[in-house]
Amino acid sequence: MEAGFAAKNANVAAVEASRLLRKPKVRDYLAVRSKEMFDRVEAEQDRLMATLTAVAFTDPNELVSYQRGACRFCYGAKHRYQHTAGEWDQKLEAHEARREAALAKDCPDPGPLDAKGGTGYDKRREPHSDCPECFGIGIGETIIKDTRRLSPAAQALYAGVKEGKEGLQVLMHSQEKARETLAKIYRMYEEGGNVNFIFNGEELTRKFEDKMARARARGAAMRLERFGEAEA
């Protein structure tokens, strides 16, 4: 009746529905549609399991990590302060402007700028073990990864960002809950807290006997190596 067939009442509709279901064309059509439905459900189940697995076991370092790198003095000449190339260019420009202003006012020339530890600072390098400033510890920094370039597994774990008084916070789906859900799906434990281990007794016995045989063979080989010549 909902599909548009004419019927006086529900009883008549039920009789007509039963008659329709006996037609080969209708049965074939329903079989095809049912298969499509179950295929979609199976595909959705696979996606759900893949997502749960990714959330449960993806390394959070794919989203945010705390890294320690070289400090400004680690690789500077004689462990003096080291600049990046861009910083040094800016300091040179500012120093030249001061020199020109001093000359225009007949003031003493401030002289050349001290390069200190030189240029080439790269905070990604490992801390120098002999650095007299950081003592090989380096400088710590929290790195938040570009969420546009996350792997599919990291995308599953990622739950957005939140800005607060303490800065930017990366949100993640609960790995503990995902692992608990997977454990329930695979029936690894019961609600009462009992852990279920499913194993094949015959297979376990075979593995045990195999390991014992290999242990006996190793023992015999060791005895032959140590005492074979003495016994002869």
Description of the molecule:
With about 230 residues, the chain is mainly α. Strand 3 and strand 4 (about 165-170) form a beta hairpin. The strands form 2 sheets. It has a two-stranded antiparallel sheet with strand order 1-2. The protein has a two-stranded antiparallel ribbon with strand order 3-4. The protein folds into 3 domains: about 1-60 and about 150-200, no CATH class; about 65-145, no CATH class; about 200-230. It has helices at about 10-20, 25-55, 85-105, 150-155, 175-185, 200-230; strands at about 65-70, 140-145, 160-165, 165-170. It is built from 6 helices and 4 strands, in the order H-H-E-H-E-H-E-E-H-H.
Give the structure's gist in a few sentences.
The chain has six helices and four strands, in the order ααβαβαββαα.
